[in-house]
Amino acid sequence: MSWTDIEGWIGERAPALHAALLPPSSAGDVADAEESIGYALPPELSAWWRRFGGIGVTYSRWPLVPPTWQPHGLDRALHLRTLMMRAISGIAFATLGEEKDYEAAALREPAGTPCVDLWLPAWLPVAADGSGYELFVDLRGGPRHGCVMEWGRYSGADSDPLWSGVTAMFAEASGALRGETRHRIVFEHNDFHWE
Questions:
Q1: Which is it for the CA torsion 115, 156, 139, 164, positive or negative?
Q2: Is 190 a residue whose pLDDT tops 90?
Q3: Which of 149, 143, 186, 140 lies closest to 169, judged by CA?
Q4: Can you tell me whether residue 60 is helix, strand or coil?
Q5: Which pairing describes strands 185-188 and 191-194: parallel, antiparallel, or unpaired?
Q6: HSE-CB for 154 with a 13 A CA cutoff
Q7: How many CB atoms lie within 10 A of CB 138?
Q8: Dihedral sign, CA of 167, 72, 35, 161?
Q9: Residue 15, by phi and psi: left (phi above 0), alpha (psi -120 to 50) or beta?
Q10: Please, what sign has the CA dihedral across residues 24, 19, 179, 5?
Q11: For residue 58, what pLDDT band results from cuts at 50, 70 and 90?
């Protein structure tokens, strides 16, 4: 099941979520984003954002990726990337020079390499759990370019990638929606969650 199939599931099973979906980004929007961040997006990621613009209602939770992850559209991803870089800068280092040296060394590491002290400019959020944890795509070079990793609000990105890319992430999510995993979806009012 691809993102298209997930969209079909949303239309059939989650009408409140379907009504809250924002218009997708254009190819021009994606190109502008790549230029502004200085990194090329993996084709699977740019193709997804040309289909999915995000979720407009913020008071409801729709974690389409089990167990807790609600996906971001491109605009939200760019906003959160900037916010995360600003929020985490200046915390772990005695001087700005030390921080910049650490960042430069971390950016030379291949995609998928853990980093706990900074949110790197090569990281672009793709989903959140609503409590300070983010999934992001690692845009650094190397064989795992485009992998999906987790940022923990207390631990940073201290683990190996969770998925090789957004396609693998959505393949697992679609399997869960079909009942093929240990996760079970539970609907409550206009929201749903996973058990």
A1: positive
A2: no
A3: 149
A4: coil
A5: antiparallel
A6: 1
A7: 27
A8: negative
A9: alpha
A10: negative
A11: low
Mean of the per-residue pLDDT values of the chain: 92
Residue 195, pLDDT score: 87
Please give the single-letter amino acid code of residue 9. W
Model pLDDT for residues 134-164, shown as the tens digit of each residue = 999 999 999 999 999 999 988 899 999 999 9
Cβ pair 73, 22 in contact under 8 A: yes
Rg (CA), the chain: 17
Q: Cβ contacts of residue 67 below 8 Å, gap of 6+? A: 183, 194
- Under 8 Å between Cβ of 29 and 36: no
Give Cα separations from 14 to 51, 94, 95, 168, 193 (angstroms): 18, 49, 49, 23, 12
- Per the CB < 8 A criterion, the answer to whether 57 and 20 are in contact is yes
Residue 2's Cβ-count burial label (10 Å; 0-12, 13-18, 19+) is middle
Question: Do 61 and 130 meet the contact criterion of CB atoms below 8 Å apart?
Answer: yes
- Between residues 102 and 89, which one has the greater pLDDT? 102
Query: In terms of Cα–Cα distance, which of 58, 79, 71, 67 is closest to 6?
Result: 71
143 preceded by cis ω (within 30°)? no
57 residue type, one letter: V
Amino acid code (one letter) for 190: N
